[in-house]
Design a protein that fits this description.
Blueprint (H helix, E strand, L loop, with lengths): L1 H14 L12 H12 L2 H18 L6 H13 L1
Helix pairs in contact: 1-2, 1-3, 2-3, 2-4, 3-4
């Protein structure tokens, strides 16, 4: 899961703007959360999603906690 988190966060912060098509950019963190939610049991997947969202919040310029909330909710709904 560490490699998945690292890859998603690097892609989110460095590649997202280059891959945008007509103003629509991919969300690599959401893709990683979906992969983790299908591959793990509910509690570890939700905990991982929360941590990955918090790390994305710390690296990004958006409001702190927003990515964490969205990643946690996404993992919860998939479970």
């Amino acid at each position: 899961m560490l490699l998945l988190t690292y890859s998603a966060l690097v892609a989110q912060t460095s590649l997202r703007d280059q891959l945008a098509l007509h103003g629509v950019a991919p969300d690599f963190l959401a893709l990683a959360v979906v992969v983790a939610a299908f591959g793990r049991k509910s509690v570890p997947a939700i905990a991982w999603a929360s941590l990955a969202g918090l790390l994305a919040d710390c690296l990004g310029s958006a409001q702190l906690g927003l990515q964490m909330l969205l990643a946690t909710l996404l993992a919860t709904f998939i479970q």
